[in-house]
Design goal:
The complex is a heterodimer of chains A (861) and B (108). With 861 residues, chain A is of the alpha+beta class. Chain A contains 26 helices and 22 strands. In chain A, α11 crosses α17.
Chain lengths: 861, 108
């Protein structure tokens, strides 16, 4: 039997084994002539335990018991310390939990390591969607590198006999469920053999949709439901755990081959012009992404030879499922964001642990006499360190338990508030527990080991003579203590500045939205292309609807635009002349500026039939031309400009007006400018209509829908713009509230730290201060001498925090945060908050002692 | 002549040696050492037990409860294969040390 195993076995059966030993020794003693010579059984038992090597465990258990008892005796300290650790570790765990579940785990689909998503790439541009016929072409001609091609096309559809509700739908290839590896909760999933092009239309509903909208109807399979007013049979209910291929899980799935049943005129399945579907593929076993890319490049060239819509230099770029279908750049961006958030939460842990370490050290100095006695009795320094560290174990354990609860509660709350898809499960996983234990060990080093090591280094035995005063004073002045104060101040200062930046950026977004008025606006959408209306018919349809709406007394103005503010897909260009600026191009009709209340600063509005006129925003004019004197000047053509009219040479555009900055598309971004072009005939398949109410926008959606139903086939949707705004601001608002909360909590921790240091220093010097007061020292001089001891570490800490805030701000200034990177107001506000809170924390204990009667202070021992 | 104490570190050696022929209980081990050394070596009764526990912990001995000739419950210690090897090593070590000491003492 292995020695270790034998020892552990003995430990497990120790009480029985020791009873046997005592019995054996008693037998021996009774057999002796002179039993008194045998010696003390207890002492021998102790020596025997030594032989098995478990005495350290007994000591540790004793120390643990002492630690727990001490905590029980001072419940306020126990609660404070547990909360500090819960907060410090919990925040890190929450982040870990969110990253693990939401970002780094590949989608849970069958054979995830051989899945790719294809992007359509050309030397100067990349689009995420491809024409449907191309997917079929690649499926049929890929030299065997792809085992399956999976297609998804998301769109909002109407649900119900009278199209009274909306559903988030996906038209998918019929192999979608087989390939992702999810079966049915009820009924069947889509099938390549059953659901072919044609006449028996079916739908699969998601589990959540079945539960929430269909009342978990057990007989739903086989039922006929109405989608975009067409009858469809429910084939099945998908499994509850079914994930989406991106963050979006559709509510209903329809076979894409049956799309023409809904929209007989739609060209989606046939046109090589419409880039609409998301294309995924499962690579054949043993194929790498690089091999697949090259093989499919040949396919693309073959496609280009037959179809003029594809050019010869295009290829399909594969993105791996194991990288969450992210491009390298995106993935690095996400990792950068994660690292930054990780750094900030680590900072919180540093502040929390330093704070607690300081508290523990202050408390331990009250025990100098006790520790001195132990050393005088022969305990070694390592034994003292061990004792103090083990005494901190219950504290750290409680904090870790609390932090796991914190992480679970926080991530579930964020998931609920942020509307995360239900397949993301935020229950605590083993990985999170492992990280929690790791962080707990690090905290134990700061909270237990460092203070213990520092205390054990002192002349503890000398402490017996003067009641430990000298040792306490030395500890009060140690470098470790100062470092702890410095790190707390630096950390909380930095966090406050970041919180300040985030709060300011939300404010700025709200203010910048003053550049356009969304409060009284509503938006009408209807994808007329679906119903096969020719471009001219689409155009006249839109203008008829606009006329009808303008006749309504509720409506002040109406405008047609390619992308309504706060939503809509938009063309984004980086011009060489303005490298740091993203230009958002919208095609608008002349009423747009009045409808959105965007002022024209100079020049004029569009007039009829001037396709090459543009209106630039103030910022675009300033950055591109260095001034506002730009009327009549030429505007550069960008290579990726999709507004180019097909079949016509792109003409140079002329600037006819300057509009006020509106930030209407990306309200929370600070590196954007707007460019307006007049509407062209080709735009009408993707436009939306915006109306401005005379009084209240909330009544508009119904009016908009009614006005749009000129053709009974068309199912319009309408929304009020302030809902879009609230949705857009939800994330930044939540983030800044969370960061602000974290900033305030760390500030409270740092103030607690400063308060602790000052009040401890004051307590040590009570007698001295009493003498000085009795001798007539003046209060300001005394206050100064008391506060001076924290002034240097606080000053250094604040300076470090400020310096660190600059690079942090620069990172936060770019995607996806867009904060004002060197926002002086955020800096100043953070410092002001910190200085006032810090001053209160430092002066409070000082005033307390000065208020005391000097005679009482002199009696203090 | 007064009895001599055991040289340090030799108690385990002696215990392993006396239980080699047959299993013995604690009291018998002490008696046997005294007897074999013609009353010259005395094992402090008490210190025997920590040494026996050490031998058990290292797997050199195995203990089992039996009834003695006098009808008492006793715990007999039996040497294991590992114990035999240990005995051999310790015996060699001891022999070398004794030879070395003798060589020094007999030098001129």
């Amino acid at each position: 039997m292995n020695n270790w195993f034998r020892r552990v076995w003995h430990l497990l059966n120790r009480s029985r084994k020791e009873r046997e030993l005592v019995r054996e020794m008693n037998e021996h003693r009774e057999s002796m002539h002179d039993p008194s010579k045998f010696g003390d059984t207890h002492r021998l038992l102790e020596y025997s335990r030594d032989a098995w090597g478990w005495n350290w465990l007994d000591d540790a258990m004793q120390d643990l018991a002492v630690g727990s008892r001490t905590l029980l005796k001072s419940p306020s300290f126990a609660v404070t310390a547990t909360l500090i650790l819960t907060f410090g570790i919990g925040l890190n765990l929450t982040l870990f939990q969110m990253i693990q579940v939401g970002m780094l785990r590949p989608p849970s689909i069958k054979n995830a390591d051989s899945w790719v998503r294809f992007l359509r790439s050309a030397p100067n541009s990349t689009t995420s969607t491809v024409p449907y016929p191309l997917t079929q072409f690649v499926n049929d001609n890929n030299n065997g590198v792809l085992a399956a091609v999976i297609v998804e096309y998301q769109s909002d559809l109407a649900w119900g006999r009278d199209a009274e509700e909306q559903v988030n739908a996906s038209f998918v290839s019929s192999n979608w469920f087989d390939e992702t590896g999810y079966g049915a909760e009820r009924g069947r999933m889509l099938s390549e053999t059953l659901d072919t092009r044609g006449d028996a239309p079916v739908v699969v509903v998601s589990y959540t949709f079945w539960r929430n909208r269909l009342g978990s109807d057990p007989n739903i399979v086989g039922h006929v439901v109405y989608i975009d007013r067409k009858p469809v049979t429910v084939a099945g209910v998908a499994a509850a755990a079914l994930p989406g291929l991106d963050f979006n899980v559709p509510e209903v799935f329809l076979p894409i081959v049956q799309r023409e049943y809904f929209y007989p005129q739609s060209a989606l399945l046939r046109s090589w012009d419409i880039e609409a579907v998301d294309m995924y593929a499962r690579m054949a076993p043993g194929t790498s992404a690089a091999v697949a890319r090259e093989a499919v490049r040949t396919t693309m060239q073959a496609a280009a030879a037959q179809h003029p819509e594809i050019t010869r230099d295009e290829w399909l770029e594969p993105l791996l499922a194991t990288n969450n279908f992210m491009r390298d750049g995106e993935r690095q961006g996400v990792l950068a964001v994660i690292s930054l958030l990780g750094a900030l939460t680590t900072l919180v842990l540093v502040v929390a642990a330093a704070n607690l370490g300081n508290l523990v050290m202050s408390r331990a100095t009250g025990r100098v006499r006790e520790l001195g006695v132990r050393m005088a009795l022969g305990a070694r320094r390592t034994r003292i360190v061990r004792q103090l560290v083990i005494e901190s174990v219950p504290l750290v354990t409680m904090g870790t338990g609390g932090s796991l609860l914190f992480a679970w509660a926080a991530s579930t709350t964020i998931a609920a508030l942020g509307g995360f898809p239900p397949y993301m499960n935020f229950d605590i996983q083993w990985g999170t527990i492992v990280v929690a234990v790791g962080l707990a060990l690090i905290s134990l080093v700061v909270v237990g080991l460092l203070p213990a090591w520092k205390i054990a280094q002192q002349h503890l035995i000398d402490g017996l003579k003067d009641g430990g005063q000298n040792v306490s004073r030395t500890l009060d002045r140690t470098l470790l203590r100062r470092i702890m104060v410095v790190s707390q101040v630096a950390g909380s200062c930095l966090l406050l500045i970041v919180a300040g930046m985030m709060i300011r950026s939300v404010q700025r977004a709200i203010n910048s939205s003053a550049g356009f008025d969304y409060q009284r606006a509503a938006v009408l959408s209807m994808p007329l292309g679906r119903y096969g209306l020719p471009v001219d018919a689409q155009r006249s349809y839109w203008y008829q609807v606009k006329e009808r709406l303008l006749a309504n007394p509720e409506i002040e103005t109406a405008a047609i635009v390619t992308a309504a503010p706060l939503g809509g897909r938009i063309n984004e260009t980086n011009y060489n002349a303005t490298p740091g600026l993203r230009t958002m191009t919208q095609s608008v009709d002349p009423e747009y500026f009045a409808t959105m209340q965007i002022r024209l600063l100079s020049g004029r509005n569009f007039t009829a039939n001037e396709p090459d006129a543009v209106i630039v925003s103030r910022r675009l004019a300033l950055e591109m031309y260095g001034g506002l004197d730009v009327l009549g000047r030429e505007f550069p053509v960008s290579s990726g400009d999709r507004n180019a009219t097909p079949g016509r040479e792109q003409q140079v555009s002329t600037i006819v007006g300057i509009a006020a900055d509106a930030h209407s598309i990306k309200v929370d971004a600070n590196d954007v400018a707007e460019l307006y072009r007049p509407l062209k005939p080709g735009d009408f398949s993707t436009v939306e209509l915006i109306v401005r109410a005379r009084t209240d926008a909330d009544r508009l959606p119904r009016i908009l829908r009614e006005a749009a139903m000129l053709d009974p086939r068309v199912i319009p949707t309408a929304r009020v713009m302030h809902d879009d705004f609230d949705r857009r601001m939800q994330g930044p608002r939540m983030a800044s509230a969370i960061t602000g909360g974290i900033g305030m909590l760390t500030l409270a921790l740092a103030c607690l730290g400063i308060y602790g240091v000052v009040s401890y220093g004051v307590a040590l010097r009570t007698k001295e201060i009493g003498i000085r007061v009795a001798l007539g020292a003046r209060q300001p001089a005394l206050l100064q001498s008391i506060v001076l001891q924290v002034l240097t570490p606080v000053g250094i800490g604040a300076a470090i925090g400020l310096v660190l805030a600059i690079p942090t701000g620069l990172v936060l200034g770019s995607e996806p945060f867009y904060l004002e990177s060197t926002d002086p107001v955020a800096f100043a506000a953070a410092l002001a908050v910190f200085a006032s809170a810090g001053a209160v924390a430092a002066l409070w204990p000082a005033f307390q002692v000065l208020k005391r009667n000097p005679v009482d202070s002199l009696r203090h021992s | 002549m007064p009895k001599v104490g055991l040289p340090p570190g030799t108690l385990i050696l002696l215990i392993l040696r006396v239980v080699r022929p047959a299993p013995l209980h604690g009291y018998a081990i002490a008696q046997r050492i005294r007897q074999l050394s013609s009353d010259q070596l005395s094992v402090e009764e008490g210190s025997l037990y920590p040494a026996l526990q050490k031998a058990l912990a290292n797997g050199w001995l195995k203990a089992e409860w039996t009834t003695s000739d006098t009808g008492r419950q006793v715990r007999n210690y039996r040497i294991t294969a590992k114990g035999l090897k240990q005995l051999e090593t310790e015996q060699d070590d001891y022999q070398r040390m004794a030879d070395a000491i003798t060589a020094i003492l007999e030098s001129t």
